[in-house]
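Recall from the previous chapter that SMILES is a line notation for molecules. Here it describes NAP.
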Amino acid sequence: MSDKAVVIKAQGGPEQLQLVEVDVGQPGPGEIRIRHAACGLNFIDVYQRNGTYALPLPATLGMEGAGVVEAVGEGVTHLKPGDRAAYASQPPGAYATARVMPAKCVLKLPDAISFETGAAMMLKGLTVQYLLRKTLPQGGLQSGDFVLFHAAAGGVGLIACQWARALGLQLIATAGSDEKCRLALENGATHAINYRTEDFAARVKDITSGRGVKVVYDSVGVDTWEGSLNCLAPFGLMASFGSASGAVPPVAIGTLAAKGSIYVTRPTLFTHIATHESTQAMGEDLFAMVASGQVKIHIDRRYALADVAQAHRDLEARQITGSAVLLP
Ligand SMILES: NC(=O)c1ccc[n+]([C@@H]2O[C@H](COP(=O)([O-])OP(=O)(O)OC[C@H]3O[C@@H](n4cnc5c(N)ncnc54)[C@H](OP(=O)(O)O)[C@@H]3O)[C@@H](O)[C@H]2O)c1
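With both inputs in hand, we obtain:
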């Protein structure tokens, strides 16, 4: 069977994404070969395409997918040929009909979860898992606590709204349109702010009666950084986990004292899923949230793999809400 993958030879615009024929080959020790039923689309793919993150070239992009395991290499015991599976994983290479990849981050997909849902939720859902369960202020988060979550109508964001509701948190959402704000509220945010038309830091102070929030989860980056710091309660946590609007400039450490002895972290999913054991434990938590119906995965758009450049344009133009998948 002839296989195809989306390759970039140079980092740059969406026009760099080229669908080419590839020879997938056989899995080596610790690897599997998976045939994709669906591949995920994530903002990290944009950073890897445009050069925000350096990549050895040529490269096949894509960090998330779901499909059927075709072959397993020596030493792989948690998967076998014929298993339904899904993953979020390094290295990139998911924009493909099939691929060979390390097995450690590939999990068996429960029968109740479709391939499309699997491909739409692994990277984004595992991210929300480590943010809301493990990226916490001193003393943790209790039911009723306020958190601020930017870009809350996006792929990661809509999962976070629902998961926060399940935990009893008051999630203050920001989003770039009134329609997106409505979507965040429908998915469990208790308050929503259109940060293109309103001063979100002032609104957060109003909503919290001047106290501020215990955590800001900020994936927007440079555009929201300063305002986010101003939303924190004393000893609050700034979790900067992305930079869709551009990188945050270097921070003068004295700022953290001036803002109220605050904490700053810049986490990445890939530290959290560095081992099979941690990935499995986080995955089970995610699968349980989805199987129970507490978190629904919204697939806003489906694109043919060949139309991946359009998918990138739409993602960068803030046109997509929830998740999108690529169909090989
Ligand atoms: N560190 C980690 O472990 C980790 C893991 C997964 C994802 N992330 C990050 O989380 C964020 C969300 O990822 P996602 O894949 O679910 O994407 P997404 O949220 O569906 O899309 C990004 C959203 O960011 C907002 N945005 C604000 N300013 C923007 C700008 N100048 N250009 C483009 N978008 C802008 C837009 O929403 P509005 O129109 O509502 O502003 C846009 O829809 C990304 O920054 C990603 O890198 C980090």
